[in-house]
Amino acid sequence: MFDRSSSHSGGEEHEIADNGHAAPFNPSTEIVLLIAEVVREGQESGELDRNISPATVKRAIFGALDELALGWLLGDRRAALKKTAAEVAEWLVRGLLPADGGTS
């Protein structure tokens, strides 16, 4: 597995493999780390529900978008990918809001 660790004084984070070496750059990994960071920041500001795990959210969002893209590539490319992605983004974000509408 990978552990997140800060390796520079600027707080830049890198993936570190079990063997202690830096893992090669992987855009997919970078995306899921970014999603988790955005969720954490939203939780800290009270804009997102604090009871939702950023680790679960990052996998769910990435998986949903990956599946949409794969389905579009392997299937009917006439489907409105932008419209479908917007719909998924809307319900994903709405589902992350606190029960009180964002004032917790």
Physical arrangement of strands within the biggest beta sheet: 1-2
> SSE order in H/E notation?
EEHHH
Number of strands: 2
What's the mean pLDDT score? 75
The end-to-end distance, rounded to whole angstroms, is 34 Å
Overall geometry comes to flat
Rg measurement, Å: 16 Å
Class per helix and strand makeup: mainly alpha
Number of helices: 3
Helix content: 40-55%
Low-confidence stretches: 1-14
Q: Strand portion, in percent?
A: 5-15%
Largest sheet: 2 strands, antiparallel
Write the layout of secondary structure elements.
Layout: E1 2-6, E2 13-17, H1 27-45, H2 54-74, H3 81-96
Antiparallel strand pairs: 1-2
Helix pairs in contact: 1-2, 2-3
Characterise this structure.
- With 104 residues, the protein is mainly α.
- The chain has a domain at 26-96.
- The chain has helices at 27-45, 54-74, 81-96; strands at 2-6, 13-17.
- It has a two-stranded antiparallel sheet.
What's the gist of this structure?
By secondary structure, the protein is mostly helical. 54% of the residues lie in helices and 10% in strands.
Task: Provide key terms for this protein.
single chain; 104 residues; mainly alpha; two-stranded antiparallel ribbon; 3 helices
